[in-house]
Amino acid sequence: EVQLVESGGGLVQPEGSLRLSCAASGFTFTDHYMDWVRQAPGKGLEWVGRIRNKVSSYTTEYAAPVKGRFTISRDDSKNSVYMQMNSLKTEDTAVYYCAKVNMVTQDDYWGQGTLVIVSS
Amino acid sequence: DIQMTQSPSSLSASVGDRVTITCRASQGISNELAWFQQKPGKAPKALIFASSSLQSGVPSRFRGSGSGTDFTLTISSLQPDDFASYYCQQYNVYPVTFGQGTRLDIK
After folding, report:
1. Taking residues A86-93, what's their average pLDDT?
2. Contact status of B56 with chain A (Cβ, < 8 Å)
3. Average pLDDT of B3-18?
4. Which residues from A are below 8 Å from B50, CB to CB?
């Protein structure tokens, strides 16, 4: 069974930093790209970024609002993906989901989400 | 970035109704569009990939169509479990972008 478990959310002050983690199990982690998607309270879904696999040189893509502030990384030895969030803004307040969405095999798996609140 | 515009933003319907949600891309995206369903407090779940390909296990009352810039999601006969929010997503180019969502409520 595929499982994605996020952790690391919490309350942080504006301009602060936070590191989210996502532990994966139930599939061959090294083969897959991994995404982060967020959802502000009462709002829609927003794609945040993606990290590719080793074959694709672990390259990353980001949405414009987070580019230069957020960094996605992964540790294949730990079956984990991370997102370092710096210079946080109040508008970054959201539930952050880790997801494996494969358009080729046409399947998707999501974590339960972790809440990040940016407030003074 | 490609803008995805969904309509309507909200919709009230009854069990057994046929409903259609549309999604328009600001530029052509071929058929690289997915539809997601999300229930309150839960993670999203993909229904359709490549505009019209139903994900395994998704009921056949869900149907997707379209190519280029205009896409539709049709639910042929609403069931109680279908009342949720629906999002389109383009994955033709980066950054990946979602539509603003359509909330489907019981009338």
Report:
1. 98
2. yes
3. 97
4. 103, 106
Terminal-residue alpha carbon distance, chain B: 36
Query: Beta strands B53-54 and B102-106: pairing type?
Result: unpaired
CB contact (8 A) between residue A110 and residue B45: yes
* Nearest C-alpha neighbor of B86 from the set B96, B67, B107, B71: B71
Average pLDDT, chain A: 97
HEC readout, B62-105:
EEEEEECCEEEEEECCCCHHHCCEEEEEECCCCCCEECCCEEEE
